[in-house]
Amino acid sequence: MGKKQTEVLVGGFVVLGMLAILFLALKSANLASFSFNATYRVLARFDEIGGLKVQAPVKSAGVTVGRIAEISFDNKTFQALVALDIDRRYAFPTDSSAKVLTAGLLGDKYVGIEAGGDDKNIQAGESIKMTQSAIVLENLIGQFLYNKAGDSAKDGAAKK
Fold first, then answer.
1. How far apart are CA 124 and CA 147, in angstroms?
2. Cβ 106 vs Cβ 74: under 8 Å
3. 5: number of CA atoms within 13 Å, CB side?
4. Starting at the edge strand that comes first in sequence, how are the strands of the sheet with 79-87 ordered?
5. Per-residue pLDDT for the chain (160 aa), expressed as one digit of tens each?
6. 94, 88 in Cβ contact below 8 A?
7. 93: how many CB neighbours lie within 10 A of its CB?
8. 113: closest CA among 73, 64, 72, 80?
9. Could you tell me where the DSSP H helices lie in the chain?
10. 98-104, long-range: CB within 8 Å, 24+ apart, which pairs?
11. Pairing, β 39-46 against β 127-128
12. Residue 50 burial by CB count (10 A; 0-12/13-18/19+): exposed, middle or buried?
């Protein structure tokens, strides 16, 4: 093998390595799934979004049906306002519900939509009325410890 061939192979290997790093960076930032399908925007209000991020998936029945477009704070209701870009191929009834879910025990957050049974579908710009906030692990642990401390105090008082 000549020197020129070796340089071309090394250059090709370097380019493949850079493409692999770019792919991993996009995948870890939730940007690897590009979609050029038409979407419509739906709003949802949550009391707690617990680490939900822009570009996180919106899923229904385990299928990605959209992405989180924007997250903001509503100063009037003191809730998180989440804008969901839903693929036009998917229509959800007006009585559908949305909840913030976790992929795995400590995984990334996403919004799950559970379809309702109404005949009329949600239109662009409308809101999902029924929402369920994220379950924050720290709050659950705090509640558990607080309840245990209360139980032990009651047991101590009962023994006296």
1. 44
2. no
3. 2
4. 127-128, 39-46, 79-87, 63-74, 57-60, 109-114, 97-102, 130-132
5. 688 899 989 999 999 999 998 888 776 665 555 556 788 999 999 999 988 999 999 999 999 999 999 999 999 999 999 999 999 999 999 999 999 998 876 678 899 999 999 999 999 999 999 998 887 777 778 888 888 776 665 655 555 5
6. no
7. 13
8. 64
9. 3-28, 137-159
10. 98/44, 98/128, 98/130, 98/131, 98/132, 99/131, 99/132, 99/133, 100/46, 100/48, 100/49, 100/50, 100/52, 100/132, 100/133, 100/134, 101/59, 101/134, 102/134, 102/135
11. parallel
12. middle
Indicate the residue type of 3.
Answer: K
Burial environment of residue 107 by CB neighbours within 10 A (0 to 12, 13 to 18, 19 or more): exposed
DSSP assignment of 10-51? HHHHHHHHHHHHHHHHHHHTT-S----S-EEEEEEEES--TT
Give 45's contacts (C-beta < 8 A, 6+ positions apart).
74, 77, 79, 80, 81, 82, 127, 131
| Residue 29: count of CB within 10 angstroms of its CB | 10
Domain boundaries, the chain: 1-32, 39-143
